[in-house]
Design goal:
single chain, 3 helices
């Protein structure tokens, strides 16, 4: 009977040791689970931050595209304006030439002087147009006269 008691005590001690090991393992599992949850939360926060950053970049690029398209529209309008100014000056110079030829054919020298003045104005118009950005001068939306190309 003593032997049975000794065996029983030994078995109880082994059971207590196994239970202690099981408790330590359970605590380790809980710690690992907590670390895993924290890691997942950190990853979610990082992904949200990256997503927010990408969204901000997208918005900035969209604003830049809108601004550039408005700028192109302004350039096209400026080129169209100068094209109309050129055509009006050409028309006016032709009309002036016709009137002068009818009224004063004997004053050919003066007519030549006036034509030189008109050509000078045309050259100044070209210089103004040459200051426009290249994108505005090469726009396919506007039919430009040869001197503006």
């Amino acid at each position: 009977m003593r032997r049975k008691l000794k065996t029983q005590d030994l078995l109880e001690a082994q059971l207590a040791a196994v239970e202690e090991i099981a408790n330590v393992q359970q605590q380790a599992i809980l710690k690992l689970q907590q670390q895993l949850v924290q890691q997942q939360q950190s990853q979610v926060q990082l992904q949200q931050a990256r997503s927010h950053q990408i969204m901000q970049q997208t918005v900035a690029l969209q604003e830049q595209i809108i601004q550039q398209s408005q700028q192109v529209g302004e350039y096209v309008a400026a080129v169209q304006y100068w094209k109309e100014q050129y055509l009006a000056s050409v028309t006016l110079s032709l009309e002036l030439k016709e009137v002068l030829e009818r009224l004063v054919p004997e004053r050919l020298f003066e007519l030549t002087h006036l034509l030189t003045t008109v050509q000078l104005m045309t050259q100044q118009t070209r210089e103004v147009v040459s200051t426009l950005p290249a994108a505005a001068k090469h726009s396919s939306k506007v039919d430009l006269p040869p001197f503006l190309k």
